[in-house]
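User: Fold this; tokens only.

Assistant: Input:
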Amino acid sequence: MLYKAPFLLLVLPVVTGSVVPLIPNINADAIVSPTSNILLSRRALAPTINFDDSNWIWTGEQAVALCPFCKTVLSSNGTSPVCANIIILSDDPYSVIINGAKIGSGSGSDSSAVFTVGLGSGGTDVFAVAVNNTGENPGFIAAILVDYTDGTMETLITNSTWKTLQAAPPGGWMSTSFNDLAWVDMVPEESASRGTPPLPPALNMTGASWIRTNETNSSGVDPIGHRPFRKTVTLPYGKAPVCAKVMITREDDEYTVYINGDNVGNSSIGWQSMQAYSVPMLDTAVDPIIIAVDSDNTKPSFAGLIAGVLLAYNDGTSETLYTDDSWKTLTQSSPNGFEATGLDDSAWINATEFIHPDSESVAVLLA
């Protein structure tokens, strides 16, 4: 496979009631890059992770078989990994396993994929990739951005520090307790040999719908002013959210998005470009989770909102929630404290889903 320099403008076809597929979620791994201090409660996403420093890697053989790969990350200096964003591309079908739990898979193609996973081990984290080699030219490439509890972050890349085995993998090889000291180092390729893969979108937006209040008049005009939107997420039994990712945009004009009352981000950029934000660490004691948006229409015009929110749980699973008619709203200005976790919104009305007349092309931020 040969790749050209990445540029991505994702088209959102308009179909009945919702905006449809960008690219499905998928994930993977790698080693150190300089750490940097960040505000742990939130961080605006730019393309903060890429394949530029990663190598295509393989076992050094051409066997048609299931091939195991792993990378171990240790906690140090009183800090622990809390969340990881993983991008991956493989020539063959693969699965991504974190601390023994499968978090995603891919068929092997020209499209890279992204996964976001909470890391709750408190000590050693094992990133594993199982690739089912089906023929010639095997290999995969990955990069991982890891957030730590002290607010620093680290980028891991696929290179010779990964471990592999030129044989069928033994039972339990993906777990944190497995000893891989007898495994061999990876065989990296020169990155230029295959080119740099294109990046995936930061978040899969399949299933998201544009929403608004019920105030749109017959001319398609919405009133001036702020309008609140809320989504209550009751957590699955035994699960706690570790980190989150938000993708959002609105039509005319401005918004501020909150999670559990905390300001995650805001923008007045036009609806043609989505914005993405990461929340590297959530308060695991909060249940339910409250997602809230203050939407501000600054002139009498068409208004609307579309968003997706990924919650990564402490067991390695994740859930993505999208704007739809289950969100709550009001036909009045956003009241003080509307974003708070303790607010009773049972008397609020449901948001109205609609088909955006001009959403044929929306630029989506890359991973």
